[in-house]
Write the structure tokens for this entry.
Amino acid sequence: ETAGADGTNGVTQSMINNDHAHNDRITSYGMGPHGQRYSTLEQINRDTVGDLTPAWAFSFGGEQQRGQESQTLVYDGKIFVTGSYSRMWALDAESGELIWSYEHRLPDGISPCCDVVNRGPAIYDDLVIFGTLDAQLVAVDMETGRVRWRDEIADYREGYSYTAAPMIANDLLITGNSGGEFGAVGEVQARDPRTGEMVWSRPVVEGHVGMLPDGSDSMTGEKNATWEGNTWEQGGGAPWLGGTYDPELNLVYIGTGNPAPWNAHSRPGDNLYTSATVALDGDTGEIVWHYQTTPNDHWDYDGVNELVLFDYEDENGEVVKAGAKADRNGFFYVLDRETGELLSAEPFIDNITWADRIDSDGRPVETGNRPGNPAETDGDRGESVTVAPAFLGGKNWSHMSYSPRTGLFYIPANEWEMEIWNEPVTYRRGAAYLGAGFTIKPIYDDKVGVLRAMNPRTGEIEWEVPNPTPMWSSTMATAGGLVFAGTPEGFIKAYDDETGEVLWQFQTGSGVVGQPATWEMDGNQYLSVVSGWGGAVPLWGGEIGPLVRHITQGGMLWVFKLHQSADLASH
Ligand SMILES: O=C(O)c1cc(C(=O)O)c2c(n1)C(=O)C(=O)c1cc(C(=O)O)[nH]c1-2
């Protein structure tokens, strides 16, 4: 992959498609379109990781710190990183010196549900592109930070926001939206990354009308097939976390959020395509297949979690093109990524009480643990139930990683339950649209979080490491035999990928809810992670709140390398 088609020294789709095979840069969220978050670098390994020390750090500054959830990108000697309140920086990767910064002017009245976070930028050609809390897209010049184009994803006054990292797939800029708690309608949009011009759009709620590349209208699904009356109109389904991409199949895999409102009694039916994974044709945006993990979702088990693409050999030696998803609902699904067919579904957490198992037809076998209908109690609060996992999920947005070295997935999991009940609600533009009340509760005295190594072939947990507070950072695996993850207690840790033993840890000064990434520069392997406590837990954690109340806020990018680095030439 050489320079951009127009002769600039730009990032190309082919670089992004092969991101996982190149260690001297990180051009995509997920460290490759398959989202494996795996690096073949091994300078930092089980023997050397003890010598990992800070190379430099950068403070995001500002008067208001909040959750820092972003993954860095690295290209041409620069690091691109985003922070809370829709801010973005370019730094010299060697020295950490500031090259440029962009601070988005946010209007009053934005309504992100779950903290003012941002999970990272996309880079393409000579542009750095990110989405903002007022649901805008901003593309800036990679060298200067000067704005080249802006566009609107949706109207923030209607409850839309944006927190994800955009994705580059099929030479298009792919974005979803946030707003599922406000009756916003989930939609995936594809733009020309150079100009911002819309190429196709695909609402992910049946009955809504999207656009094909020729400009013509095209309805999603069949109106009223799985939603009654006009319930689909404010149906939610926000694809707020982005997705993964298979360049060979030209399929874009996106998870969709909870249907709105949470009170499922008011919207009988499966409510396609909410709480599901959809595979979209990269050329047209049309839905090629879908797999709904939680039909008629009643518990806010958003299906947004990433489908991580991986291959394995079956008993007959045939390569299976698979994808795996650790869903908020507590089950770990392995799907055929060409067809969406279910290959297996096993629990990755204990104590799932909303369903007993996933049947061979792909549907959950429910236990009947749905909150009562408020209409049956004179329109007041309905009967409440206690159910696990809690709505923040067996795993939330924080990404798992897959190591081809061990064949294991490393899942930042959580075990908690909730009391939940329904209340009557009517839709009002821009207002919360839940129809539910809830309290999250711990299940155990000594842990909520648990880092789990899951074997996708057997459904077995090969090792686990509990954590007192929720695991809220992404994980990353490396050929050095390591798994990296952060904790709310402020540590970035390196775990042995075969045993879970903690081999190294560093205190970053605030909770780590960010995403480790690694690359090589001038013979050194580098590790980066952002630190800064926030995200959904301190806002929505209910009785978990006291466990995390003492954690102080922050906003810092940390970059590490080995104190005495070995020569990379040997590999
Ligand atoms: O339905 C939505 O639109 C939506 C958006 C977001 C977001 O954009 O961060 C979250 C959620 N839902 C959500 O349910 C959730 O648990 C959550 C956690 C976080 C976070 O950053 O810690 N964001 C979100």
